[in-house]
Amino acid sequence: MSPTNPEPVLKVEGLRKSFGDNEVLRSIDLSVAQGGVVALVGPSGSGKTTVLRSLNGLEIPDAGRITFDGGPVVNFGSGASKRELAALRDRSAMVFQHYNLFPHKTVLENVIEGPVQVQRRPKAEAIQEAEELLGRVGLAEKKDQYPHELSGGQQQRVGIVRALALRPTLLLFDEPTSALDPELVGEVLSVIKELADEGWTMVLVTHELAFAREVATEVVFMDGGVVVEHGPPETVLRDPREERTRRFVHRLLHPF
Amino acid sequence: MDIDWDLALTSLWPLIEGGLKGTIPLSLASMALGLILALLVALMRLSNNRIASGIGRAYVSVIRGTPLLVQLFVIFYGLPSIGLTIPPWPSAIIAFSLNVGGYAAEIIRAAILSVPRGQWEAGHTIGMSRTLALRRIILPQAARVSVPPLSNTFISLVKDSSLASLILVTELFRQAQEIAAFSQQFMLLYIEAAAVYWVFCLVLSAGQSRIEKRLDRYVAH
User: Fold this and answer.
1) What is the CATH number of the domain that holds B54?
2) DSSP-derived pairing of the beta strands A201-205 and A218-223
3) Distance between B213 CA and the closest CA of chain A, angstroms
4) Listing from the earlier edge strand, what are the strands of the sheet with A8-19?
5) What is the tens place of the pLDDT at every residue in A175-229?
6) Which neighbouring-strand residues pair with A40?
7) Contact A117/B136, CB-based, under 8 Å?
């Protein structure tokens, strides 16, 4: 699937958000092509996580519009309705930094909860699909264990499977590896890379620039609530036009 | 003091019977109704609706700020004077349920708040409404946290149910009072009543540990 597909699967226009006096988003525009992988990068406090969470209705912007190809179109500002937020969540699914698995449910129960309880799919079918997905991330034999019995990397892979099981149009990743011990980062990144290769459309917030360079079709650099620059990873991460981007990339590549 | 062992033995069964037919059903019914009420009040207090949370707060404040005995008397002896006469048993159940409702509401509210925000968000991201997330994700986790304090409430209730003897409900303590008045053996009967309450509470504590173990199965040790 080509990232230059003309019809974007997701369009974000003029997103604004303040927490009290703190303006975290000042008019964000963004578009994601079918099969595209957009990496949101930038210093902490730049607003990238707020953008991501808005796409899933976990944060409600003060103004702006989110348009999914084929619906919904959600206009913020006049107060998004519950139905509109539900429609956003129908199209996208989030993988959290801290996994947020349900501790009182087994791995399998975590994965089928959405398909069975929300999407009302037949339980047997949901279980079969969940087992298949768990097998693909190497966790088939862990299906009856509880989250606390798994390593961080395994829990995050369950988090990814839980999102996939919803069959979303768009996968969202919020710093999916930053809570992990360094030796566990690889196993999670390689799952995300496989999904990207399969053509899943995704938006991810990440500090792993090397990873972004490898999987992203587009890198969006944010700072102070605005998009400073965006473009293909080889441009934004190797040869940025803006001084702010250059300093940020340099700092991450040369921390000392 | 000579102990009248004959009386101690013959009075034991009436006391236990008073417990099994009075104290325990009275406590169980009041606890069950009280918990439903408590969940409702906890949700009211947590809601964004100011009127609902205000009503919830006022209710908890009145219940916790007035003696249970006075609440019981208002219902049984007070209401008839405005034309509402409620028999002893229902009066006791109403008073105890309202009382449990006030105390347990705070326990349940705290337990719900103790579940991390990320759990709500995870529920939302898989498409759940607030109600569904509450039922499937939040309450099961809150239940685990609230079992120990709710068990305390229940054990207190079992003991406080002796107050029902003052509005003519035949339960454990009232049996003891009647036998004591008849035999004039006050020390013996009241110590015996205390012992029976104590055994009941020991059994309940054992039950609490079992429930806690069951709910702890998904938690790291």
Assistant:
1) 1.10.3720.10
2) unpaired
3) 13
4) A22-33, A8-19, A63-68, A73-76
5) 999 999 999 999 999 999 999 999 999 999 999 899 999 999 999 999 999 999 9
6) A205, A220
7) yes
Residue B219 lies in a domain: no
Instruction: For chain B of 221 residues, list the mean pLDDT of each consecutive stretch of 10.
Output: 84 93 96 97 95 96 96 96 95 97 97 96 96 96 92 95 94 94 93 96 92 78 48
- Residue A33's beta-bridge partner residues? A8
Q: Please enumerate in sequence order all residues whose Cβ is within 8 A of that of A243, keeping only pairs 6 or more positions apart, or say none.
A: none
CA B189 to chain centre: 25
Q: Could you list the residue range(s) of the whole structural domain that residue B85 is in?
A: 5-213
pTM: 0.88
- Would residue B37 count as lying in a domain? yes
The DSSP output letter for B136 is I
The secondary structure of A192-219 as a DSSP string is: HHHHHHTT-EEEEE-S-HHHHHHH-SEE
Residues of chain B with Cβ-Cβ distance to A147 below 8 Å are 218
Q: Locate all alpha helices (DSSP H) within chain A, ordered by sequence.
A: 48-55, 82-91, 107-113, 123-136, 152-164, 182-197, 209-215, 233, 243-253
* Nearest-10 Cα torsion for A230, A236, A241, A245: 90
Question: Using the 8-state DSSP alphabet, how is residue A66 labeled?
Answer: E
Tally of domains in chain B: 1
Instruction: Domains for chain A: give ranges and CATH numbers.
Output: 8-101+169-253 (3.40.50.300)
In a domain, B13, yes or no: yes
DSSP B101-129: HHHHHHHHHHHHHHS-HHHHHHHHHTT--
Nearest CB among A57, A93, A98 relative to B118 is that of A98
Closest CA to B112 of B138, B130, B133, B150: B138
Tell me if B40 is assigned to some domain.
yes
- ipTM of predicted complex: 0.92
Give me the amino acid identity at B188: L
Q: What is the pLDDT of residues A5-33, one digit of tens each?
A: 557 999 999 999 999 989 999 999 999 99
Q: For residue A251, give how far its alpha carbon lies from the nearest alpha carbon of chain B (Å).
A: 31
Size of interface A-B (CB pairs under 8 A): 64
Instruction: Please name every residue paired with A73 in a beta bridge, in sequence order, or none if there are none.
Output: A67
